[in-house]
């Protein structure tokens, strides 16, 4: 487990731009050292803000888009193309404007696909796709993602792991169907905490006043069942990327010292 590090930006636009720049560097470095990179995307306002900032960054052309695997941390179980699906929003924000290899864009299944209403079977199939991508050098049934990003919800949820629901207690499976999520839509697919923790780096994105309480709770020693964001960490690095509003309720001991 890596201890969370915090970076606080002035506002959410700056946070998105700085996170996009950080992501470009990570991907380019991974591609230089291993030949490819793998990144797990998040939905939500902050995740999509980052993707839009990445689309607008001239340095995005430094990425070899054909040697990048993209996965999702969670998905809203809705029909293909639904505007509320995380993959639909990611396509609009970034993926439609860069030369990704469609074979390497690993979207989670849709509710009008082969599994129909059976979200648990859909989750199992995504777990199988992850397992096929995991090589012998990986530590289990999921690839060692270079970067896994998570938006933090106002209730401390990450991916579709909501406080107290069974999905956040999962210790074996890498992907689960989520039933009865308190945020619409109620039916979702999510990576579990063990799968999240397989990533080299986990980045938690929190911008806006409505995230302040969640960040303070998750970073103050809360349990992961009550505050799922508290259980999200990477093998080598756990990075909280915040704006000043989201950092406003952090205990002083955590908040980085002001510059002189
Ligand atoms: O529903 C979801 O919410 C979270 C957080 O979204 P935000 O809009 O409050 O930032 C997101 O990370 C997750 O992927 C998504 O499905």
TrEMBL record:
Pathway note: Carbohydrate degradation; pentose phosphate pathway; D-ribulose 5-phosphate from D-glucose 6-phosphate (oxidative stage): step 2/3
Domain Glucosamine/galactosamine-6-phosphate isomerase intervals: 11-240
Keywords linked to the UniProt accession: Hydrolase
Keyword set includes Nucleotidyltransferase: no
Xref: Pfam families: Glucosamine_iso
Keyword Hydrolase attached: yes
Domain of life: Bacteria
Entry protein name: 6-phosphogluconolactonase
Gene: pgl
């Amino acid at each position: 487990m890596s201890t969370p590090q915090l970076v606080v930006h002035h506002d959410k636009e700056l946070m998105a731009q700085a996170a996009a720049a950080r992501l470009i560097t990570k991907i380019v470095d991974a591609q230089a050292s291993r030949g490819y990179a793998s990144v797990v995307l998040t939905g939500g306002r902050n995740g999509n803000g980052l993707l839009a900032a990445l689309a607008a960054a001239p340095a995005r052309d430094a990425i070899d888009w054909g040697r990048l695997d993209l996965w999702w941390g969670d998905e809203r179980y809705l029909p293909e193309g639904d505007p509320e699906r995380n993959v639909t929003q990611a396509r609009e924000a970034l993926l439609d404007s860069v030369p990704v290899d469609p074979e390497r864009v690993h979207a989670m299944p849709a509710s009008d696909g082969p599994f129909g209403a059976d979200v648990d079977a859909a989750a199992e199939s995504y777990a199988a796709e992850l397992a096929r991508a995991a090589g012998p050098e990986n530590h289990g049934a999921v690839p060692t993602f270079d970067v896994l990003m998570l938006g933090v919800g106002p209730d401390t949820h990450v991916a579709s792991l909501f406080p107290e629901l069974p999905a956040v207690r999962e210790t074996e499976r890498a992907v689960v169907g989520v039933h009865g999520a308190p945020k619409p839509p109620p039916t979702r697919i999510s990576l579990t905490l063990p799968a999240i923790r397989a990533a080299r780096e986990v980045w938690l994105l929190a911008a806006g006043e409505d995230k302040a309480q969640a960040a303070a709770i998750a970073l103050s020693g809360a349990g992961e069942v009550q505050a799922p964001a508290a259980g999200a960490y990477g093998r080598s690095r756990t990075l909280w990327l915040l704006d000043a509003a989201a950092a406003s309720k952090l205990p002083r001991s955590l908040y980085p010292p002001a510059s002189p």
